[in-house]
Amino acid sequence: MNKIDRYLEFDDPTVSEFDLKVNEQFDIVDGLEQLDIKTMIEMPPELEIDWSSAVPVYLSLFVNLDQDQVPYKISSKISSYFKVDDDISNVDALQILQTDAATILLSYLRPLVSMMTAASGFPAMTLPMIDFNSED
Fold first, then answer.
1. What pTM value is reported for the model?
2. CB under 8 Å to 78, separation ≥6 — which residues?
């Protein structure tokens, strides 16, 4: 397991889904509109988590799915097992999984998205930083 500041350990992430749909009709001359990026974090319900074991965390990423005038649409899912240090309360551990674990998973998706979009015939996309602490 990899360790982050000794309070969080995780296995190497696994990409279970990556779907890139290229819009060959998109005209780059019109310019790129703002990206529409949505995420979804999934893990077992709080009452079902065994804090003595690693907890699976899944991050789904959706780019431009609700847009028509875009060069590409992306749907992907990545996951890993995370173990939070036993000295951290369950409430804080849950928050760490929802924020830090999601940020870690996103960092593993970032180069994949960049590489695949660069091969699409359109400019490569670099995923921005996402604040998983926000309520949005």
1. 0.89
2. 13, 14, 15, 16, 58, 59, 61, 105, 108, 109
Q: Output the average pLDDT for the chain.
A: 90
Query: Per the domain annotation, does 127 fall within a domain?
Result: no
pLDDT at 135: 62
Contacts of residue 50, Cβ cutoff 8 Å, sequence gap at least 6? none
Boundaries of domain holding 104: 2-118
Provide the domain count of the chain: 1
Residue 113: pLDDT band (50, 70, 90) is: very high
Joined together, the tokens standing for residue 19 give 């779907």
Neighbouring C-alpha atoms within 13 Å toward the C-beta of 84: 21
- Give mean pLDDT, residues 75-99: 94
